[in-house]
From TrEMBL:
Keywords, sorted A to Z: Retinol-binding, Transport, Vitamin A
GO biological-process terms attached to the record: determination of heart left/right asymmetry
Xref: InterPro entries: Calycin, Fatty_acid-bd, ILBP, Lipocln_cytosolic_FA-bd_dom
Function: Cytosolic CRABPs may regulate the access of retinoic acid to the nuclear retinoic acid receptors.
Protein name: Cellular retinoic acid-binding protein 1
Family: Belongs to the calycin superfamily. Fatty-acid binding protein (FABP) family.
Molecular-function annotations in GO: retinal binding; retinol binding
Domain of life according to the entry: Eukaryota
Domain annotation Cytosolic fatty-acid binding proteins: ranges: 7-24
């Protein structure tokens, strides 16, 4: 049984977020705003349903899904595309494939040394984010 991803997590490092946003076609103006954000992940599990909230002072973004069950995702407030998403466990990694206009798009989450890791990929770009648990919440 993998370590639980649930909880409130605050970003401590963010590598190549810019490259990932360029791959998604985000405007220079929005990229500049996004790069300054202190992103927070709030991850909840209710039964076999996961809810992942990405929270910031500028915008929030929430998805909910069941592992192994494909769903339509609208990336509202991000790149505003529709993708077909499927989340599965690959070992201790929660892996999402996002099928749509952009090739090789998806992400994976895992916990290592009490940190939440996230790798976001699109086309040839990989963004690596690490979050530490917020114990106050
Ligand atoms: C929601 C806060 C970010 C708002 C940034 C606004 C404009 C920039 C537009 C697009 C940037 C691309 C991605 C933003 C980065 C994080 C948002 C969620 C990334 C994601 O797919 O997270 C997964 C895995 O945790 C769950 O949705």
């Amino acid at each position: 049984m993998p370590v639980s991803l649930c909880g409130t997590w605050d970003i401590i490092s963010n590598v190549n977020f810019e490259g990932y946003m360029i791959a998604l076609g985000i405007s220079p103006y929005l990229r500049k705003i996004a790069l300054r954000l202190k992103l927070r992940k709030v991850i909840e599990q209710r039964g076999d349903q996961y809810i992942i909230k990405t929270v910031s002072a500028f915008r929030n973004y929430t998805i909910s899904f069941r592992v192994g069950q494909e769903f339509v995702e609208f990336t509202q407030g991000l790149d505003n595309r529709h993708v077909k998403s499927l989340v599965t466990w690959e070992g201790n990694k929660l892996v999402c494939e996002q099928i749509g206009e952009k090739k090789n798009r998806g992400w994976s989450h895992w916990v290592e040394d009490d940190k939440l890791h996230l790798e976001l990929h699109c086309e040839g770009e990989i963004c690596k984010q690490v979050f530490k648990k917020n114990v106050a919440e």
